[in-house]
Design a protein that fits this description.
The complex is a heterodimer of chains A (711) and B (406).
Chain A: H1 6-15, E1 24-32, E2 37-45, H2 58-76, E3 82-87, E4 91-93, H3 98-103, H4 107-122, E5 131-135, E6 138-140, H5 142-148, E7 152-156, E8 162-163, H6 166-169, H7 177-185, H8 187-199, H9 207-212, E9 218-220, H10 225-238, H11 252-269, H12 275-285, H13 291-306, H14 309-322, E10 343-346, H15 350-363, E11 367-370, H16 374-393, H17 399-408, E12 409-412, H18 415-419, E13 424-427, H19 433-446, E14 452-455, H20 462-466, E15 475-480, E16 489-494, H21 500-512, E17 516-521, H22 528-545, H23 549-556, H24 565-572, H25 574-587, H26 596-603, E18 610-611, E19 618-619, H27 621-626, H28 636-657, H29 663-674, H30 684-689, H31 692-697
Helix pairs in contact in A: 1-2, 1-4, 2-4, 4-13, 5-7, 7-8, 8-11, 8-12, 11-12, 12-13, 15-16, 16-17, 22-25, 22-28, 23-28, 24-25
Chain B: E1 8-15, E2 19-20, H1 32-46, E3 57-61, H2 73-80, E4 89-92, H3 98-112, E5 117-125, H4 140-143, H5 154-164, H6 170-189, E6 200-204, E7 213-217, H7 229-233, E8 254-264, H8 265-270, E9 277-286, H9 296-307, E10 314-319, H10 324-334, H11 349-352, H12 359-373, E11 379-386, E12 390-397
Parallel strand pairs in B: 3-4, 3-5, 10-11
Antiparallel strand pairs in B: 1-8, 1-9, 2-8, 5-8, 6-7, 9-12, 11-12
Classes of the chains: A alpha/beta (711), B alpha+beta (406).
């Protein structure tokens, strides 16, 4: 048994994190209404406004600990009838300060953080008087957990975001969340909050849901939330309000809930990231109601995960999408951007129509589509209008907004009529260089001199496309990912002659489109398609050489990708996959092959390798009959090594070529354009920690500590 | 079209506790609009039988209609309070009689038939909006001697009133002030005041002021129970050397808000709402701006005349205590003793504070409570002096009146 006090533990931890934004725990006394008595209210406040939410680092925990020293004594002496805890305006508390977690190098230091939080928060349930948490605003992670240790909770109807996001990042709710929540609201609901919401793109709960789930005992409107919470507190303390919580079912349903959680985790991370499973283990054990055992298990899980690569990759990935995505590396001064008050779209096919819809919704400027015949134009405009009606039907926009958007979209045959006053014209026509050059020549003839000409090409050279124009400096690549409405990535391609003003305008438009823009060089297939094609090509190679399809697919499962390679191929479309591989084969014949089996599948008009008659993907017998395989059969491990080596090699070459500024941009692209998971950090943190990078390129992609435990 | 004037009633009224204006005051970090919004919400909570969609108007008064008291606060407060968007609102200004005017103006419209039920109230955050903020008096006031230069400074007008009535001495004013504090403390002890207060959460980030973090205000901050004549005797007379007006015998600079429900009597009865007072008459009168404290006298004369009543018919008085001298001038005029039990039974603004445009409804809320307790009284009045030389009086009838037979 350690004799270290909580204060000493936190002091030690604080020394490791000198840059912590320290949260104060203000203690203020007040007289409750109805003569209910003197009450101590703790306000968590880091001294900044709501744009810098309150967090918990070791110094913050120490402050809360000191506040609890004070109220513990007052409670014991009978000076107060209760203790409350709330946050600064709009923010309750958003949990542990991740910057402090990133700095930790030793298992025992990580353990101290978990233990420190527990030791402080636990005191809230051990006071001589009842304790109340008032969730006034955003509450996440440790913020939620500090309230779970209290006797009662109220929540504001105006609360916009409430979550235990730890599993999303690669942690477990480790300051009581895993043990307390199922004991408060039952295992099934706790699994929804801790596992399902986290793995569902970190879904946030609103105040009403927090109340409906039974996490909070009372719900009050935002306008006088704290007043009503304190009045309610007075009534509870006087016995005028009795809090009744439903009995927790500790029977079989508990195990079923945990099993459901495992099923959800398997579906999302396929066993490749440990956090969800560690959380589920603790939830499973919490059935006994032994909270201290749960807290101890949380400490261990936290420390193990903090010292593991998945969490470090997760935090790295989180920072990429939260920070790097907002300040694209290499983007020119945004003041150079020109205003975009009208958009032209060349082509009215499905992709073009989707782009038109996106520009319309985000920019709210006139968008005009053109195509080669009236029928296609009408179809494109009709698609956009139908999508607007769908949004209206779902209540996402109101009638006025629908009217506005519909009035802004139009289609014409004559480019001169459509584009003569457009500032930004994007083409989404057939993927053939001659066709695209022809289209741009026609557009240049009628568009204003300042207009940006953007191409949504996925694999053609932007410079070549611009080469025959009078003003090639205004051509940029603007490569979206399917589905356009869902995947955030936008690869912005700088051609040889693209000037800064055009590029700045492109970045400005991307920001308004709410896309994650990454600047890429005009290199074959840019970033995501090049890596995915190399990745898929290597799988196709081993299949062609003789490894069974099933083995090749299973070899990739340990990565926990959102879908298997051949399912992805089906989503992209085998014909498009083949086309991109042909393009890259022309550019880099030594590394990119064109699979004869894939060509045969495309030729046969098949849309994928699988049939789903049994509900699960099974190799289509017709495809199986088409496959001509060699006799080299690899093991799963051998397949995995070959595929990862190929990916590492390609990334190394891309960085050497300067396709993007840094490995971070590769990862950002893979996360936002291909949905590659946080626990891989995109891919380079995974390649580094599995030793692939060093094996292939002789060095790691990232410096130690960037997405790994610091040296 | 033929039209019948309808009876108008005071359904209910609430207020925030009043605070001291300034950096050490309880509301220093609280917005003015939030104060009145919370008062409106409490009013609605207390009267669940009033369907918010049936509210026809939100009339909110503020003297300084800038910043968080600007932007047509009657409208913005309605939205912020969660009233349906279909409920309109507007702003009113008659300085100290703002909330009183919000009541009478909407009451007139109710009698006319334009409204059935309204929210009427006022707010003044004199810490965020000091008296005189942004004013730009026309220079003709001075060049043409339209008003005396002292007219803009309320404390000076109170000294002027002492000049006019030399028999109202500083001693009398101080004695009156001590009684106001005593009565207020007694009313608090008996729980008369708290029942109509809305608790307000307040934040303090300045450790020099006191404990930091969120707190809850459940009582008036300006009160000074236990005030003695000796305490008051030594106070400075900031408006004139050797003057008579001090911080002790005048209301302070305060922050606070009030709100009331005013309705036609038929509407109130049909909707099961309480009827706490019935409006009899109201009147406003102008006086020389440099003795604005005289205003309640001609205003009351007019209101009594309209009602066909004499001063002897009035059983309870709620006189706003901007300055003790102004109350005493009123009492002297009607031959009422300084310590008459009918006047300001719960104490007045000298104790509770006077956040200018909000105070009128405080007077009404207190009179309504006194009506409840004293069914032998048939009529009462609320009156106040108003800056730039005005007075405002409303006469009310006690719906609990038992015929005086008890």
């Amino acid at each position: 048994m350690s004799t270290t006090t909580t204060a000493e533990l936190l002091k030690g931890a604080a020394e490791l994190f000198p840059d912590e934004v320290v949260t104060q725990a203000h203690v203020r006394h007040l007289d409750l209404p109805y003569g209910a008595g003197k009450f101590a209210l703790i306000t968590l406040d880091n001294g900044f406004d709501h744009t810098k939410p309150t967090t918990f680092g070791p110094g913050s925990l120490a402050n809360l600990n000191t506040a609890l020293d004070q109220v513990e004594k007052e409670a014991a002496d009978g000076d107060i009838v209760g203790v409350g805890i709330t946050g600064k305006p709009f923010i309750f508390a958003v949990g542990a300060d991740l910057k402090g977690v990133e700095l930790l190098k030793r298992h025992e230091d990580a353990l101290a953080i978990g233990k420190g939080g527990h030791e402080v928060f636990k005191r809230l349930s051990g006071l001589a008087v009842p304790t109340f948490a008032y969730y006034n605003g955003a509450a996440m992670g440790g913020g939620v957990e500090v309230g779970l240790h209290c006797s009662y909770r109220t929540v504001s109807k105006a609360l916009p975001a409430f979550s235990l996001p730890e599993v999303f990042l690669g942690l477990v709710p480790g300051w009581g969340g895993c043990a307390l929540l199922p004991n408060l609201i039952g295992a099934d609901k706790a699994v929804s909050v801790i596992i399902e919401n986290s793995l569902n793109q970190n879904k946030q709960l609103k105040g009403q849901q927090v109340f409906d789930l039974g996490i909070a005992d009372a719900l009050f409107e935002g306008a006088d939330f704290l007043e009503q919470s304190l009045i309610w507190t007075a009534n509870v303390l006087k016995g005028d309000v009795t809090v009744e919580r439903p009995e927790i079912d500790r029977g079989e349903s508990w195990d079923q809930a945990v099993a459901k959680g495992r099923f959800i985790a398997d579906g999302k991370v396929h066993g490749a990231a440990p956090a969800a499973y560690r959380a589920l283990d603790i939830i499973a054990a919490a059935k006994s109601g032994d909270l201290q055992a749960g807290f101890d298990a949380e400490d261990q899980a936290l420390a193990d995960l903090i010292m593991g690569g998945e969490l470090r990759a997760g935090i790295y990935a989180f920072n990429l999408v939260q920070k790097r995505a907002k300040r694209p590396a290499g983007a020119p001064d945004k003041n150079l951007a020109r205003p975009v008050t009208k958009v032209g779209v060349v082509g009215a096919g499905l992709m073009a129509s989707q782009l038109a819809l996106l520009f319309l919704r985000r920019l709210e400027v006139p968008v005009v589509l053109t195509d080669i015949d009236q029928e296609r134009v009408d179809k494109g405009v009709g698609y956009v209008q139908a999508e607007i009606d769908k949004l209206l039907g779902k209540g996402r926009i109101n009638q006025d907004k629908a009217n506005r958007l519909k009035a802004l979209v139009s289609g014409v045959l004559d480019k001169a009529e459509g584009f003569s006053d457009a500032d930004f014209i994007i083409e989404a026509v057939f993927e053939e260089i001659g066709v695209k050059q022809q289209v741009f020549a026609e557009v240049e003839a009628v568009a204003p001199a300042h207009a940006i000409l953007a191409t949504n090409t996925s694999s053609l050279s932007v410079s070549e496309m611009a080469s025959k124009l009078k003003h090639p400096e205004r051509v940029v690549g603007f490569h979206f990912f399917n589905p356009v409405a869902i995947l955030p990535l936008l690869e912005i391609v700088r051609g040889e002659k693209t000037d800064d003003a055009s590029l700045a305008t492109a970045f400005g438009v991307a920001k308004k489109l709410k896309k994650t823009a990454v600047l890429v060089k005009d290199a074959p297939a840019f970033v995501v398609n090049r890596i995915l094609t190399r990745f898929m090509g290597e799988i196709q190679n081993v299949i062609d050489e003789g490894t069974p399809v099933e083995t090749a697919e299973k070899a990739i499962e340990p990565l926990g990708l959102p879908m298997s390679p051949l399912v992805l191929l089906e989503l992209v479309g085998p014909a498009i996959g083949l086309h991109v591989s042909e393009t890259l084969n022309r550019a880099f014949p030594e590394r990119f092959t064109v699979s004869p089996n894939l060509a045969a599948v495309v030729k046969a008009g098949k849309r994928g390798f699988y049939v789903y008659d049994s509900g699960k993907p099974e190799l289509d017998p017709e495809v199986a009959a088409l496959l001509k395989q060699g006799d080299v059969v690899l093991t799963e491990e051998q397949v995995r090594d070959r595929v990862l080596d190929a990916v590492a090699q390609e990334i190394g070459l891309m960085l050497d070529e300067g396709v993007v500024a840094e490995a971070q941009d590769i990862d950002l692209c893979l996360i936002t354009g291909a949905g590659w998971p946080f626990h891989l950090g995109g891919i380079t943190p995974y390649l580094d920690r599995e030793g692939v990078s060093e094996r292939v390129t002789g060095k790691k992609f990232l410096a130690p500590g960037v997405a790994s435990v610091p040296a | 079209m033929p039209r019948t004037a309808r009876d108008v009633v005071f359904v209910d009224g609430v207020r925030t506790p009043f605070g001291k204006a300034g950096p050490k005051g309880i509301y220093h970090e609280t917005r003015a609009d939030d104060l009145v919004v919370k008062a409106i919400r409490e009013l609605l909570r207390r009267n669940p039988d009033l369907d918010p969609a049936k509210i026809d108007e939100v009339a909110i008064a503020a003297t300084t209609q800038i910043g968080d008291q600007g932007l047509t606060i009657g409208r913005t407060a309605g939205i912020l309070a969660g009233l349906p968007q279909s409920v309109p609102g507007y702003s009113i200004d008659r300085m100290c009689a703002g909330a009183l005017t919000a009541v009478t103006t909407t009451a007139g419209s109710i009698a006319f038939g334009a409204y059935d039920a309204v929210i009427a109230g006022g707010v003044e955050h004199m810490g965020r909006h000091p008296m005189g903020e942004g004013v730009d008096p026309n220079p003709r006031f001075v060049s043409e001697k339209l008003v005396d230069e002292s007219a803009l400074f309320m404390g000076m007008t109170a000294e002027n009133l002492h000049d006019r009535y030399p028999h109202i001495t500083k001693q009398r004013a101080d004695e009156y002030a001590v009684r106001s504090q005593e009565k207020a403390a007694k009313a608090y002890a008996n729980g008369k005041i708290q029942q109509d207060l809305v608790p307000i959460s307040v934040r303090n980030t300045n450790a020099e002021v006191g404990e930091t973090g969120w707190g809850l205000v459940t009582a008036d901050e300006p009160m000074r129970p236990g005030t003695t004549l000796e305490n008051l005797a030594g106070l400075k007379t900031p408006f004139r050397t050797h003057g008579r007006v001090t911080a002790g015998n005048a209301a302070g600079l305060n922050d606070g808000a009030t709100a009331s429900i005013i309705a036609s009597e038929d509407f109130a009865r049909e909707n099961g709402l309480p009827v706490k007072m019935r409006l009899v008459s109201y009147a406003f009168a102008g006086v020389e701006p440099e003795v604005m404290g005289y205003g309640p006298i001609p205003a009351t004369e007019k209101a009594l005349a309209k009602a066909g009543l004499g001063i002897g018919d009035i059983g309870l008085f709620e006189v706003n205590e901007a300055f003790a001298v102004q109350v005493l001038a009123f009492l002297d005029h009607y031959g009422i003793a300084d310590d008459d039990a009918r006047v300001n039974q719960y104490g007045g603004a000298i104790a509770f504070g006077h956040p200018l445009a909000s105070s009128g409804v405080r007077l009404m809320t207190q009179l309504a409570r006194q009506f409840e307790e004293q069914p032998q009284v048939r009529y009462g009045l609320t009156t106040m002096c108003v800056g730039f030389g005005m007075g405002a009086t409303v006469i009310w009838e006690n719906p609990h009146f038992d015929g005086g037979n008890k």
